[in-house]
Structures are given as C-alpha cells and as structure tokens.
Amino acid sequence: MTRKNTLLKTPSGVQPVPSPVQERVEETPYEAVASVCSVLVVGLFILTFLVQNFVIPSGSMEKTLLVGDHLVVDRITLAPSAKWMPLIRYREPKRGDIVVFLKPGFPDLFLVKRLIGVPGDRIHLRNGIVILNGVAQDQPHAEKTTLDNHYDFLDEFPSVPPVPTGPDGTPESWAVEFPSHIVDGDLVVPPGKFFMMGDNRHNSLDSRYWGFVPRENIVGRPLFNYWSFVTPEDQYEKPGIGNAAAWMGHVALHFFTETRWSRTLNPVR
C-alpha cells in the first residue's frame, strides 16, 4: 500500500502537508556521565542498603545451603530500625532464622548460620539434640548425630569447655569468657547477643567455637538461591589469578551441565 501525504485545500489549489520533521537531540558528554552516575548510585544504594548477593564457600550449612549456591540477601528486615525509612518493616532476629552476619572480631568476614538462641535463652546439647529452655528441639534441617560422628565438645555442649586454637578456631577471649555464661549446665545467651550454629553440625565453626554474635553484626537473611553451580569446597580458598581464570573457564564450559537447576530461585528456609 502506497503511503500518501495528507492533502489540504487552499485558495491556490491543493498542496501536500509536509510530514513533521523529528528533531534529533544529541546527548552531551556531561549528560551521558550524569546518567551513568545516577544508575551507579541507585545500584550502589540497593546493594548497600536493600539486598546483596553472596556465594556459599563452605559446607557448614549443608544440606540447606551447598557450596556454590549464590544467594540474594535481604539487608532490610533484620537491620536496626531507622527513622529515615519509616515505611520499612523491621523485626528482630528470631530462632530458626538463617542469618548472614559478620564474624565477631572479623569486620570483613561474612558468615551464614542458623540462629539457635536469642537473649535470655538457656542452651545445651545432649547427643547432638538442642535443648532450648528445657525443651528438646525438633530440627530436621540439622545433621543427625550417630555413633560414628559423635564428638563430646560438639554434641554435649557446653559440658566440654572450648580450648583456644587461634583466630581461625577458638579465640582465647572466648575460652576465658565461656565459664561466666554457664548456669546449671546451660549456656545462657546474654543481652544483645545471639547464638548461631551451622546445619552441618559436625563441620561447622560456629558459636560453640567462637562465641555469641552481637546484634550489630547481623547483616540480613538470605531470600532465595538465584544460581547454584557444582563447586569444590576448597575452590574459593585457592589464591592467584591463574586459579580464578581456570575456574571461570570451567564455569563457562560446564555452565549448563553443572548448574543445579533444581535449586534455582529456591527460597532459603
């Protein structure tokens, strides 16, 4: 079909009405830089205050979280309330929450564990079962204790006191402070502190080893697993650009075959 000009009759005859000319506006370099900066500012705000992505580097939370799980973490709900964001729904951490926090004494080391005890709780373990305020807890997510994996320090906590092993294990400060929190065989969680444990109970450096987590150290809670890739447990500990490049190549080659598709977008509970 031939596109025609609209005709307008005038005293001098019939003349075509010219099509409107679209004026092209060129973006100045200043405007381009401003646009990029605004996007970066919004993105930085979201990653700093609202959500953040984390990758699981170890098996301390198996089978709930696996090495190579990539998580989106909500940084708002468990954050201390702020007057400048009055419409945000805040709440205090509660038992059973999976929590991302900064390891006490390590301002740059993020950990993820399950919250077992809140301030005032009395905790002890018997044969690996958590006894909370005198009541045995049903925790199907936790690794079971057997004759083969039973270990007194972990499974009869706190009957066996921690022994200092250095900053990567039990710090001396926790070994010294530990007895002051024991009352009638229970560990009592002090005000403003929380007790954390990994679901993989026999392969988790947690509050049994290094103590309580201060409220201000809690960063947020994982929402869902946006991508999961089969990953060796020591992969993220390997140093060097060569190892990083080799791993990126491996991911590119095996993206479809080693992605755990069944875990994609799974909510974390």
Walk me through what this model shows.
- The chain has helices at residues 29-50, 152-155, 172-177, 207-210, 241-258; strands at 7-10, 13-16, 51-55, 69-74, 98-102, 110-117, 122-126, 129-132, 135-136, 182-183, 186-188, 193-197, 213-214, 218-228, 266-267.
- A hairpin with a 2-residue loop joins strand 7 and strand 8 (129-132).
- Strands 3, 4, 5, 6, 12, 13, 14 and 15 form an 8-stranded antiparallel sheet that branches. It has a 5-stranded antiparallel sheet with strand order 9-8-7-11-10, with no helix packed on it.
- The longest helix has 22 residues, at 29-50.
- The protein is α+β, with helices and mostly antiparallel strands.
- The radius of gyration is 28 Å and the shape is globular.
- 20% of the residues lie in helices and 25% in strands.
- The protein contains 5 helices and 15 strands.
- Residues 1-11 and 36-49 have low confidence and may be disordered.
- The protein has one domain: Umud Fragment, subunit A (Ribbon), CATH 2.10.109.
